[in-house]
Design a protein that fits this description.
By secondary structure, the protein is of the alpha+beta class. The protein contains 11 helices and 17 strands. Helices cover 43% and strands 22% of the residues.
Amino acid sequence: MLRKAITGVLLAALIMTGCKNEDRITVEGSYPDGKGALLKLEMLNIAEKQFIDSVRVDKKGSFEFNFELAGPELVLLQNDTGEVISLLVHPGDEIRVDIPQESFNEGYSLTGSDESEKIRMLAEKMEDTRSRLDSITDLLSGMEDLESPEADVLISSYQQIFVQQKRKNIRFIVENLNSLASIYALYQRVAPEVYIMNDLKDLQYFKIVADSARVKYPQSTLVRSLAADVDNRIADYNSRLTLSKLTRENVTETGLIDLEIENVAGEEISLSSLQGKVVLLNFWGSWNQDSRDATRSLKNVYRQYHDRGFEIYSVALENDRNTWRAALDFEEYPWINVSELTYPYSYAANVYNVKNIPTNFLIDRNGTIVAKNLSGKVLATWLDNML
């Protein structure tokens, strides 16, 4: 009787262990050039990373991670120099990653995960595209005349390569809707701030992937963060539609989008009130040192041309009046300074499609935007011809 009871307990323990192992994930591999290096494993969702574990590569060049996740997730295998290998893991996966060279994330091979292999191929193709685009950028940076026929050819080639890569990503997404690797394809970039899926119309692909993934993998943190991001994008799109309607109502007779924003004293000043002058519409922020430096550099030009009919309408992207006031007191900008105090939500920045600061627009006496992002001698030359 006792023997049967013990057998039952052991059997139950084995069953529990077997169930637990089904959820356990192993990531092991070889990294001969990284002996002694610290490897880190993090879970990545759309908005943030979460630490999982870290191990050191042993004397034989081997490493191993063992961990559990409730559902499929995107994890990052990172070395101590910041290089990353992306893996798409499912509970129960036993993945092997072999890194034969010092470059870590180039030329590696893996087994045990078809999803991770898809990501490896996506990353490899993107790296090739990025290299080709960087080569064109290097050639353009060495050219004095960016409006020459030679520059036009390079710019056209750059655009073609970008479009080709985008078509590849769209095709992959459509053909792999049941794979979470499609999420990785949605967020691939050719540069830190340049996403392949960067058009408003691309929202349809985000929604298709999110709708499919949230039904199949509701327990996945990656999927939940994708769904939240898509919901935010849809809300932003709807806001833009409303904003577009409001914008049409604020267009002046010259076609310039008017702004009516308060200065630090609470007095509302409109951009249209400056009609008849040459105006530099400038966007900056007290929290952004580059924009403060660029705005400060306008002082000499302003003093030189202000009496001839030049004005600056400077919009600060802020959310705190005291911080903004302190920056103005320190910088002593002598022109018109206004702020909606609603940052990061800004009507002015949205309607003028300001993605980064500093950004400025030169507006002629007739209210027409004639140039963008001018400074120094180039701005002075424009003003000499306009005043």
